[in-house]
Automatic annotation (TrEMBL):
Gene this chain is encoded by: frr
Name of the featured protein: Ribosome-recycling factor
PANTHER family hit by this protein: MITOCHONDRIAL RIBOSOME RECYCLING FACTOR PSEUDO 1, RIBOSOME RECYCLING FACTOR
Molecular functions (GO terms): ribosomal large subunit binding
Chain segments annotated as coiled-coil in the UniProt record: 148-199
Organism: candidate division WS6 bacterium GW2011_GWC2_36_7
Amino acid sequence: MKARLRPGLVMGNVVQYGDNIRDIKKMDIDVFKADIQKCIDHIHEDLTQIRTGRATPELVEEVMVNAYETMAPIKNYASISAVDAKTLSIQPWDKSILENISKAINIANMGLFPMIEGDRVLVKIPDLTEERRKEYVKLMKDRVEDGRIAVRQVRQKYMKEIEELQANGLSEDEADRTRDEIEKVVKETNQSIENIKEEKEKDLLTI
């Protein structure tokens, strides 16, 4: 049975912070990168909910459907494909929930028009007005800024952890090396976020 360390107690080369036991010789940069990736994934997920004038499965796949006495995204219940540039086809594996899917899309209030046709739900994607496009661009930029804030918070968390590790024996050289690596990842991430923003804005403004 492994000995449980008290907070801040050093034993050999490890130190405990809360429920986490870390090697004081270094910080696991892969854990930091994984947390940063979660920020990017969340931005992607948020932006797929902001529709452009084109039909893409991502537009509706996260819409929550009430079926079988539970709530789950459409993608859990059906295959989604683009029939053409303005139409999506949603084919549930269980045809008894066609009405549930159509109702869920209406409730989502995304300005889409679902219609049940045989064993599928067809979703018409109307053209965006210029005013609506500008509203969506503003919403998109707000979501992107939320993502940038999340990245800064992750950075601050790990910078503080480096200070705590230093106080418990982490070498200055290792601390500086880790800080440099964190800053490099953050810089690359911010550039990726900017690229995501520019691409989404282009999609929103393209008629």
